[in-house]
Amino acid sequence: MKNFIVRTITGVFFAAAIVVSFLNPLAMVFLFALVTGLTIWEFCGLVNERPYVQVNQFISTVAGVYLFLAMAGHCSGFVNTDTVFIPYLITIIYLLIAELYLKAKDPINNWAYTMLPQLYIALPFSMLNVLAFPQAGSYSFVLPLSVFVFLWMNDTGAYICGSLLGRHKLFPRVSPGKSWEGSIGGGIIVVAIAVLVWYLLGLYFPDESNLTMWQWAGLGLTVVVFGTWGDLVESLLKRTLGIKDSGNILPGHGGMLDRFDSSLLAIPAAVVYLFTISLL
Fold first, then answer.
1. Which residues of the chain have pLDDT under 50?
2. Contact, 257 vs 226, CB < 8 A?
3. Helices and strands in the chain: count of H runs, count of E runs
4. What is the pTM of this model?
5. CA distances from 106 to 6, 52, 116 (A)
6. Which residues have CB under 8 Å from 188's CB, separation 6+?
7. How far apart are the C-alpha atoms of 216 and 224, rounded to whole Å?
8. What local confidence, expressed as pLDDT, does residue 186 receive?
9. Which of 72, 70, 55, 31 is nearest to 116 (CA)?
10. pLDDT digits (tens, 9 = 90+) for 237-255
11. pLDDT at 244
12. Which of 142, 160, 189, 235 has the fewest CB atoms within 10 Å, i.e. is most exposed?
């Protein structure tokens, strides 16, 4: 019971912080730059526990945060030149060349684990800026916030439907607790929420309503499918590392990877979907 209360309080503050941050572009950029840094730091700390792996935790974290900030500046129009990405590229090249001089027992492992958090964490979080700044100089909270709302509703719906109806395991090798019934139920709830978002935007924020009802439903379904895969990917990561939680920074919820696992695939998938239907 105590753990449930702690988990609930943490979850409420967590969700509130994200919702409030999206109301202001500077707050959003600051919060998710911090989230990017903490998540990469956590990831590097975990993989550095593996034999013959030694990732430069500090430089990897700084590089990931810089990529997020560079993308924010580029997408918002605050930075009017692509050269803003050059320091990031130089850092990546440095991390590769450095292995020549470190005399590590398995440099390939170091290279792989150094590049993975950039691809798996920094790049997806930086894509939030593509959703938040659809045009240079304009900011909209609707799309990035919707992605997180859909993920939260999917988690809630999948848990309820899975608890009540779950019979068939979705991916028992990686996550025994997930069921097909829960996943389908969560997906149906998210599609319904997406249609509701379309209706409410048309009613109260017509200027923000750039997607049709079916396009909103498609976005919700995209977030559900890739969010579920994101959750499974992190579960496979934890099983491979032999850990239960990725960290303990969030009481009752584990670490940053535990909280943002679904979004790490859902965010880039949402961007690809919106580009595919020519909305970005």
1. none
2. no
3. 13, 2
4. 0.93
5. 42, 6, 16
6. 157
7. 12
8. 95
9. 55
10. 999 999 988 887 777 668 8
11. 87
12. 160
pLDDT of residue 44: 96
CA distance 207 to 134: 13
- Give, rounded to a whole angstrom, the gap between the first and last alpha carbons of the chain: 45
User: For residues 122 and 120, what is the distance between their CA atoms, to the nearest angstrom?
Assistant: 6
Residue showing tokens 């579960």: 235
Task: Give CA–CA dist 126/72, Å, rounded.
Answer: 7
The predicted structure's pLDDT at residue 252: 65
How many CB atoms sit inside 10 A of residue 186's CB?
26
Query: 254: helix, coil or strand?
Result: strand
Q: Could you give the C-alpha distances from 100 to 106, 118, 119, 167, 210, in angstroms and in order?
A: 11, 20, 22, 52, 51
Token pair of 169, please?
């395991």
Query: 55 near 113, Cβ under 8 Å?
Result: yes
DSSP secondary structure of 181-202? HHHHHHHHHHHHHHHHHHHHHH
Query: Is there a contact between 32 and 128 (Cβ–Cβ < 8 Å)?
Result: yes
Provide the pLDDT for residue 2.
57
CA quadruple 251, 256, 262, 263: dihedral sign: positive
Residue written as token pair 């020549």: 100
Going by C-beta distance under 8 Å and a sequence separation of 6 or more, which residues neighbour residue 1?
A: none
Q: How many CA atoms lie within 13 A of 5 on its CB side?
A: 2
Contact 264, 230 (CB under 8 A): yes
**Phi-psi category of residue 212: left, alpha or beta, with phi > 0 → left and psi -120 to 50 → alpha:** beta
